[in-house]
Amino acid sequence: MPDLPLTADLMNARLDRLERRQEALIGSVDTLVDVVIAVRDGVGELLAWAQAPPSSDLPDTLAKLAECVSGLQEAIVAQARELPGQVADEVQRRCR
Which segments of 1-96 does DSSP mark as H helices, in order? Predict the structure, then answer.
């Protein structure tokens, strides 16, 4: 392909294209800077959290949670035991 002479219009078109690409590149770098800042801040927060002393509330909280779950399980089992009789009673009541 032979080299075409650069006319003023062709040079302006190429310069416009380069300017648009440059602006896109600047925008991309700016976005990358925002991401790096967010990651840096997140790592800082994670490091601060990791250096904090462990909470002593965790064992008590887990014990209370286990107690609640156990109570709910017992209530569900009790209702499940009564459910067949309740369904049978309701079927008989509606079929009269």
Answer: 8-51, 57-95
Domain total of the chain? 2
Residues 7 and 21 grouped into a single domain: yes
Per the CB < 8 A criterion, the answer to whether 24 and 30 are in contact is: no
Give the global pTM. Answer: 0.45
Q: Is residue 39 located within the same domain as residue 71?
A: no
Query: Residues 10-32: pLDDT tens digits?
Result: 999 989 999 999 999 998 888 89
Identify whether the C-beta of residue 45 lies closer than 8 Å to the C-beta of residue 39: no
- pLDDT band at 4; cut points 50, 70, 90: low
Residues 6 or more apart whose Cβ sits within 8 Å of residue 4: 10
Q: Report d(CA 86, CA 24) in Å as an integer.
A: 70
Q: Assess whether 23 and 70 both reside in one domain.
A: no
